[in-house]
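User: For my dataset I need records formatted as: sequence, then structure tokens, nothing else. Please produce one.
Assistant:
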Amino acid sequence: MKWTEKYKVIAPLMDVNNIASPSAQLSYMQDSANCQMEHDGPSYNELFEKGLAFILSRITISFYAPLSAHEVIESESWACPSRGATFNRCYRLTRGGDVIAEASSAWALLDTKNEKLCRVGDIEYKYGEDAPIEPEMPARFRIPTEADMSFVAEKIVGYAEADLNGHMTNTKYPDILCSYIGDMRGRRVSGMSVNFVSEAPLGQRLNVYAGEYDGVHYVRTIREDGKTNVEAAIVLCDI
């Protein structure tokens, strides 16, 4: 079953171009999902109290048009058919009936007590399932060698990025990643795919690498222990 929430886009979420940033739009998407979970159960907090946490594995977002401050939008979210240890969920933002952005995501449900993944069917959720969507941005990608990835910055995960689990929250990643692909003035994200390989705990030092090939910007972040944190493919367009 699809769940819809109505929002008025707030001005503090505007970026350097005076439009809602990618992270801002993802925040509205995920808030509508949290509202569905809270209404139908189990809520995120109820799962957390049981030692369970949804961890984002992969998300693909297509942004079709910019959003401005104080525009009224609707954010739609729904669970999709899932299997194994992968829980699928989709999102859609609309403005006056026009689709502004769409996203498809895959999640893992982690038992934080024993660090094991739960399987679909281990928990009962009451909000049902609907058919998935396929955003224009491809969900799966590999960073090509031609992208010539090079070190661009060091990032330390701070208070402003951390969530209840003590890790960088997934809604912060889009804007952070866009900080390493050049001047964003006059440009906006039209598509983004992010693979979450390992978490970035509060205080973690990340080395950021970036490159570009065939019109696609690529970003990879590496933790202090040498493990990849995330890999992203980002497509931009002129405003």
